[in-house]
Amino acid sequence: MTMPIFKEDEILYKDVMTMDMVDLGYVAAIEYNDIIIISKGTKQEYKVPKSRIMRYNESEILLDILSSELDRYIG
Q1: 28 with 37: CB under 8 angstroms?
Q2: Which is the most buried residue in 14, 57, 64, 71, by most CB within 10 A?
Q3: Domains in the chain, ordered, with CATH?
Q4: Tens of pLDDT along 8-63?
């Protein structure tokens, strides 16, 4: 899968959704090859490779990850 081209400041603080439309949280930080997502309710931290971004728009990011797969990305 080809990763979309983006400027890192374009995705910082955007809301993040899983492929099955579960609201994951927001992008709190960006590391070399990863985005750090913080859930809004539990403040759980997820470290997700940038390559898992399927697409994004002005308000949200869609990952190519199902909510059932999130355990492997807990930071």
Answers
A1: yes
A2: 14
A3: 8-73 (2.30.30.240)
A4: 778 999 999 999 999 999 999 999 899 999 998 889 999 999 999 999 988 899 99
The full DSSP string for 2-65 is PPPP--HHHHTT-EEE-TT--EEEEEEEE-SSEEEEE-TTT--EEEEEGGGEEEE-SSEEEES-
Cα 31 from Cα 48, distance rounded (Å): 10
Nearest to 49 by CA among 62, 32, 61: 32
- Please work out, in degrees rounded to the nearest 5, the angle formed at the alpha carbon of residue 37 by the alpha carbons of 33 and 40: 175
